[in-house]
Amino acid sequence: MPERTGDTDGNFRLSRPVFLFRMVILSPWLKRFPAGVSGRLFQELIMELVVVGLVLAAVVYGIVKDYNPQAVLALAGMALFAVAFFAGIHPILDAKKTTGFALFDLFEVFKGIFSSRAAGLGLTIMLVAGFATYMSHIGASQALVQVAVRPIAGIRSSYLMLSVCYLVAVFVSLFVTSATGLGLLLMVTMYPIMRNLGISPASACGVIVTSQSFEIGPTQTNAIFSAGQSGLDPTSYFVDHQIWLAVPMVAVTMVLHFFWQRFCDRRDGWDPAAHRGDAAELDEKKAGEVPAPTWYALLPIIPFVLMMTFSKLLVSDIRMSVEVAMLVSVFAGMLCELLRSRDVRTSLAGFSSFLDGMGKVFGPVVALIVCAEFFAESLKAIGAIDTLLHSADKAGIGSGLMTLVMVGLIVVASVIMGSGNAAFLSFSTLAPAVAAKFGVPAVTMLLPMQLASSIGRTVSPIAAVIIACSGIAKISPFVVVRRTVVPMAGALTTALVLNYLLFMK
Hints:
Order of helices and strands: EEHHHHHHHHHHHHHHHHHHHHHH
Shape: globular
């Protein structure tokens, strides 16, 4: 292995084998550039741009071709770390932490990120997912949706009903954190009500799939991750920052839904009055399925109430973490199951669904966070982030414009991937360093990025929620996307303007 040494300035430097690597491999491409110190720095800059450009192109290609994103990001990170090491740009690990062998150092970095994330943020996200799975298992999520849609059944104006349904769906999304799960629940509860009032299938689906378009609340995966990257707890992130953008965004989206869906229906020749009384063709409930009692609707709300109560808002001397709130709520659900079934075995058996839910999210979300952070660290090691920030500074780009660039990246990635989580978790780890360079709090960049990730998913025809809901309604996913793109564009514009005025100006 090449021996690492330090020069008189304390900078990283490699011994003769690495020098030969640079001369043999890189010289044919770099020998045309000027010599000397400034020339050498320029050569390294060109090398960084070429290598990073090639690796990023490979990452985009892999994502577009639907390769496993975790593996793509991990391999890309390893490639960049290797180039940074053998080109003498940056060590994989410093002298105090190195294993003595570069290949082992590479996996040591990966292990360190895995250990810190799996035990911290990863555990939080798994507990949230396990709670959501358990609430669905015992029928509490279904009961909440049934209770929420009951008061609006008497509204007789079609497009007023559509707007009110959107507000109800957003309220329920605070407690049912799965976009696809919530969409399916609303399709069997809210969708028939809207169809009965003559609302077109496309308009009804457009409203339903946007119910989780912002991922509001302290129990949402992206919100939890964004809060952690911002150095905030999820409750403070929600109360002090997210809600100030989310409320106007919901209002704007509701108004746009009213006018845009009506415009699209008229353009398509759909008259709600001519379709009043239409029945929605939905799959029947499974035979033998026992609905949960109405009071079970309170169970999904417990974590939210606990976290709001035991925070600086009310009981400031007692704090409730996300993890504890989830565990308390699950055991409360088990107690309710015992009271309902009068069977200890049945009440305890449901705990396996909680554990299964935790396990199912480990690969898609937690592993993605680890691989994305590993890739981000490799970009820092090879100097890509410093180059980007230096170039932005020289070009006079401010924090506001850089935020637009980051948000645009997230939106495009969300549309391509069909997943807000995958897009946000892949790129958001870069935001704190960018924000620090511009002298603004990390949350001012992460907040619009987090909101943009779920907005981008809502206009992606390959998003799971859109495919599932459009399949039930028997319409094309592209038809649904045409119904969501204008409300979501209005919401994103609102978020960017308010974020700039409230937190950046």
